[in-house]
User: Fold these one by one.
Assistant:
Number 1:
Amino acid sequence: MEPISSHPLYKAHTIDSAMNSLWEFYTRKFFTLFLVSFVMGLIIQYLSSLIRIDIGNYQSLNIEEMMQKLREYLWPMVIVSALSLVFTTILHSYVIFNPLDNENNIFRCILKSFRYFIPYMMIIIILAIAGSFVLFLGLLVLVIGALFAGIYIMTLYLFMLPIMMVEGPNIANTISRTIKLAHRDFWLNIGWTAVFVIIMLVVTMILSGLILLPFTGSFFSAVKNPEEATAVLDFTSKPLYIILTAVLNGLTMSLLPIFACILYFNGRAREDQQFSSVTVEKIRVEDLYAKPLPEENEEKK
């Protein structure tokens, strides 16, 4: 396998080169990335459609009874979340390892990804706990603080899996390296993440709007009659909606691991350049001997 420095995303980027590299990599590996993301979308959307929470049945319940009923959906939600993490790990594995060795096809990358899943899931749990605290602090300074906290958590999240896959599945090292690389060029990383999130939100909203066009009647009926929202929104479990949502997932999901790798490789390349630029002054033979004192020079004269 080629060294990590030969990866096409490994370079000290500007915002322009980052977006160009993202698009070039995405188009070059589109078929495989789309296929994996599409399958992920199909499975997760289908399982999500089975988790049906009827709002009308909860209106007559008190808080205790409502929480008891919602606990019934806890494990299905955990399974959906775990599957999402599995596919995310697979996509990252393919983005990182396939360009370094053509033999690392999608099937080999799937096998490689299992090595990182458990440590990744543990770090996500840690991040969720820490992130909740950071978001709470952000809410203390109202909307701007909460938005900044959300972008900050997202930045840390993006660094984690590439670091784990390139530098080893050590949880302590992953956390320390994530904090170090994310804070090395802090405002640059935060700014790039914010730009990426905004682009993804705009693209997702446009594509989601197109997907909802065949179901516009049902959607507006749900808005007009909130009491019947659960019955009206049955279109979310229809095969056409599931397939269209999977297509949306296939088009957008793979952009996340590519951008995460760009962030990591940019930080890694800048770090390596900094170390390589440190030059050691050449030592001369004369420097090994003590220089004569001024008195000695005067006696010789």
Number 2:
Amino acid sequence: MSKKVLVTGCAGFIGYSITKDLLNNNFSVYGVDSLNDAYSEVLKKARLDNLLSNKSFTFNNIDLAEISQLDSIDESFDVILHLAARAGVRQSFLQPDVYVRDNTLATTNIANYAKNNSISKLIISSTSSVYGDSGEQSVEENVDELESPPSIYAATKISGERIAKTILDDSGVILSIPRFFTVYGPWGRPDMSILRFIYWIVKGTPLRLYGDGEQRRAFTYIDDVVAALAKLIDEDTEGTFNIGSAKINTLNEAISYIEEKLDKKAQIEYLDKAYRDVNVVIPSLENSSNNLNWEPKISLKEGLAYTTDWCLSNIDLLDKIEYLYEGEESKSEN
């Protein structure tokens, strides 16, 4: 008998990708999403349309911060995969109340729901932002989280982690927390660098680069993230796990790989470094390797080639999206 999984944030980038993988592997998925306007709803609705074509997928548009809406779900689940969140460092300073609501409160409600409904396993996604700038040392789970988080976003995510742990202590619910590092790939978010960079280079429009491009990231391809989540769903592995690339690359290196793939130069418009943007975050993957038996497999050059091919095949969809960096004002009336 296949497992039934509740996936929150199923219309988001990672939520859509893992839901599609689960459906392809004969899981039954109950997806929830509020389809908010954090970034282009066009992309979210296109992802959701793809999922709705599968008879093993059920969708419910609910707000997880409203406990009554969550409690109205009259289903039983083997696993809850909580991926719904409000992301973005800069924007979190502009809307702190929204981030507390969509991240900390929603995660609190999910943890209570798992406990009250005797769910055997809860997986809560988190972020590398809780570490701040790592410098040249790799960051380790349960050691290097900053006492004073560097952003409202990071504060709401680490608060959600800690509240969930407290709620589920001695409950019997298996709690796993993957922390993601700069995830990219097909169906990615248009407020993050990679999808924006590819689209702008393809279209020959100025590529807006905040800072000098020497910021370094553990760019992590979506298939590697999906593989980690699949392991957490299939295995009873508790703990917190860094899910990131073993190799650190600069934004400039990412741009050069895209230019090479497209055989086209970017028209770069250099802007001031983004507010509270970190220089580098390097993940320690020792725990993920030893205790989850997971390691990333896709290099940045390879992953960018796959992502660029997807963008070229879906250019009509991408033409409908507004590519705003977090906190930028919309250029349209809508």
Number 3:
Amino acid sequence: MTKDERVARLLNLIKAAFYPPAGVSRILLALSFGFVCHGVFVAAILAMITAMFFGLSESLGTVPWPWAVLANFILIVQFPLAHSVLLSKRGGRILRWLILGPHGDTLATTTYAIIASAQLLALFAFWTPSGIVWWRAEGAAFWALTTAYAASWLLLTKSSFDAGAEVQSGALGWMSLMARIRPVFPRMPTKGMFRLIRQPIYIAFAFTLWTVPVWTPDQLVLAVFYTAYCLFAPRLKERRFAERYGDEFDDYCAQVPYAVPHFKRHKDRY
């Protein structure tokens, strides 16, 4: 077995889900949630990558102007608002309440992933483009920005894995239900990208916003709004971590910067 606890934990969960205890209704419920969760998740990621690559100049939104301004505003704020609420203690109760029956608690992470993915899919699929294109990269600039854009997404993927792939993808809930076990969350992430900064997921996403090869007013609004969110919203996450992990999180914060790596050598306590 691999020595990397992140991989070992994920493989153990997958193995347990592949050999579930008897229970037809439970298994069908788990598989249904898994199918919906990962289907919407993939659709949302593809919509994000494609829409931002073209600077939000291509989308399915057709709201007439000036009402498109209001529609786009609602689309852009709905994700961070729900994200902040659902990750709170009250939000956790809401997620458990949404699934009737005895499995709401087990499926909470999967339910959250479905909601978050659907929100992102709505934002990037139904944005109404302004029709204004300021700049399209060509030649060497196009390939340089495309490479940076792809690298930003790879960085986001690596950071999400380091944080716990089963949680970030929504698999923890439905696979735990399949295996009829209590969901086990990863320990406080301190490895991989989290050795450099405390918020690599948010910073990597911010990079994706600014490395696109097409620039429009739409992309600029999205980039400014979500960059601000990526810089300030994680403070709420860190409050939850401080309550949950106490001195361990305080020690981690003392060694690892918030968003900008300092690359100083320090004693490895993690």
Number 4:
Amino acid sequence: MRNFVHPFTAVSAAVCGFALLPIYCAAFAQEPQQSQQSQQPQVVDGMAAIVNGDVITYSQVRQLSAPREKLLRSQFTGQDLENKLQEARKLALKDLIDRRLIIQAFKKESFQIPDHIVDQRVHDIIRESFGGDRNTFVKTLEAQNYSLGEFKEKEMERIIVSAMRSHNVKTNYIISPTKIEEFYRKHRDLFTTKEEIKLRMIMISGQKDTGNAQAQKALAEEVLGKLASGGEFQQTAQIYSEDSTKDTGGDWGWIQRNTLAPPLEKFAFNMPVGRISSIIDYAGNYYILMVEDKRGGTTKSLAEARADIEKKLIQDEAQQIQERWIASLRQKAFIRQF
């Protein structure tokens, strides 16, 4: 059998991330809760699919989809929840089928992952996630009705899948300058920072329903006059403003576009820093604005964005190659879902 160390090395950083263990834990811990929460009868176990003779069980599907299901149960109810759960389980089954096809391809090629690679993986998990306490690690597995042997087997499969994906997806090709430039033209917004302003505002109610609109407009003009004469905007807002930001001196903090009503936004985002606006008559009220600071709204040049674009296009190409490879495995396989 051929030693499969080289492809493994290429992905070791990805597969050896310690964040994977809590995913296992979440799946096992969720299993009994799931059966309690669902009001619909569920099959305890059975065949969910057969892949070239290998069986995938319902319990395996539920284990994989459990973290996603837990999130869905906090977000949806009723029929929407049931539809989302069914979708999550279908995706989990698809993933399990793809994994099984990859492992079968690994065995067909007579590759082999050395045992010490898995042992090192387990050692790293114990060191990083359990403070080096092997007994606590083993007891945690036992509490989840999961043996150390089963855990090692799952880790071996995880390593195999990652190694085979790396082995079959070569990324040593060059993205043409034309493709990079085309992507930049079509997605300039991805390289543009959000435009924000730090805003203060005074609002004087028009009170048109009481017939006192003229007096209120005169008040707004008086307030603007005080500001023009050097009055502090914050103190003036605390005295005269009638909106919810009065106590904070009309402070709206940092805001982005689409926060204010369009007429107010047009004024605010086109004002120079430190400038006080004229009176803005909008929806029966009078507004005076001041922009204290601005940031964002700048776009990276093509030269600045080139490296990021190239990296993304390489990743996209690798994903497409991987999908075509998996599709070819499916096409050659006998797969039956129940």
